[in-house]
């Protein structure tokens, strides 16, 4: 079998990977003004950078919201579409090696996909995600560049923004540590620094996602969660999610290619049915 190309087409960003003989090959991401430009730019760059000829490609698999804009074969190659939630589950399972988990896809908003072996079901989501962070940062920090916000947040002090259990109680509350967040932004003052605000925004978004994921697992025996999407690359994930693990007695996993899991899953959707 030749290479299978998986492409996660966003509105402005396209992620592309190749899978051959069960191995992921050199994923890349391209940002452009629209999904069509982004898709063809990513595809051309991927073939060029990896010295791949069109005849080496067995199949192209598209997924993501931008895939709806594509209704023709890519460069004349066999082209099909994978349901995004199926792609989320397949990619996260492949990368994490977990088959009993909830996949937390942190995109513009956040979706939850429950995986039980080959049974993958979208169980809901919340409207908090990268779009929330970018929008609030645009209003409060005059930038929507999430990398810039993350850099600013490294120099911020979250204690100047969030109210903790220790701030409102002289003794520990059962099941909660003294540094557990009681209320996001409740401690913020009108003269808060941009660095503190950036830290508060990122913590609020990540904490909301992590807590919602745990709530989505209630009624099941799932204790493992796989984080995928661009937000999983934020350095603050290493602070926020371990604290939530302790709070809820659960485990969060960020696989190697976490931002590319949906594209990986799209390719796997084909290979799983054409062995």
Strand order of the largest sheet: 3-2-1-4-5
* Number of β-strand runs: 12
Residue-averaged pLDDT, rounded? 94
CATH class of the largest domain: Alpha Beta
Radius of gyration: 20 Å
Order of helices and strands: EEEHEEHEEEHHEHEHEHEH
Per CATH, the architecture of the largest domain is 2-Layer Sandwich
Tell me which oligomeric state these chains represent.
single chain
Net shape: globular
Tell me the number of structural domains: 2
- The helix count comes to 8
Q: Do you know the CATH topology of the largest domain? A: Nucleotidyltransferase, domain 5
Protein name: Pantothenate kinase
GO molecular function: ATP binding; pantothenate kinase activity
Keywords: ATP-binding, Coenzyme A biosynthesis, Kinase, Nucleotide-binding, Transferase
Pfam family, one: Fumble
Description:
With 275 residues, the protein is an alpha/beta fold. The chain has helices at 35-49, 84-96, 130-141, 146-154, 165-168, 194-217, 237-248, 261-271, and strands spanning 3-9, 13-20, 23-31, 57-63, 79-81, 100-106, 110-116, 119-126, 163-164, 181-183, 224-228, 251-253. It is globular, with a radius of gyration of 20 Å. 43% of the residues are buried.
Short description:
This protein is α/β, with parallel strands linked by helices.
Keywords, separated by commas or semicolons:
nucleotide-binding; Nucleotidyltransferase, domain 5; 275 residues; 12 strands; coenzyme a biosynthesis; 8 helices; 5-stranded mixed beta sheet; alpha/beta; 2 domains; globular; ATP-binding
